[in-house]
Specification:
about 120 residues, alpha+beta, six-stranded antiparallel β-sheet, 4 helices
């Protein structure tokens, strides 16, 4: 299964999630307003597929420092605490699902985020 199909399945399983193109990339939104995952397949100086998503406070630096081959600070949104994840470097789909769920919790209204617990 290709990475976008897997990312789409994880995201669209979340409450009130939708998908549409944003800046030419498949992007996932809570209540069609707030984005929480952007899928980019080769762009912004990354040769392979990546996702960008908001990380819990302090996690961006922790992941980038620990595994810079897998995680990076994405352009444009990195200053806001978003994390870039390389999907073709030692892929762990369980970990990717956790990262996506954390991103959803970061931006979703409390009632929706509580549905994940």
């Amino acid at each position: 299964m290709d990475p976008l199909t897997r990312i789409r399945a994880i995201c669209l399983d979340l409450p009130e999630c939708s998908e549409r193109l944003s800046h030419g990339c498949p992007t996932f939104f809570v209540r069609q307003k707030t984005s929480f995952v952007k899928y980019i397949d080769g762009g912004y100086d990354e040769p392979g597929p990546t996702i960008w998503c908001p990380a819990p406070d302090g996690v961006q630096a922790e992941l980038v420092d620990a595994e810079p081959e897998r995680f990076f600070v994405p352009p444009y949104v990195g200053h806001s605490g978003w994390i870039g994840v390389r999907l073709d470097v030692d892929p762990d789909w369980g970990e990717f699902a956790e990262i996506i769920h954390d991103a959803y919790r970061k931006v979703a209204p409390k009632r929706l985020a509580a549905e994940l617990d």
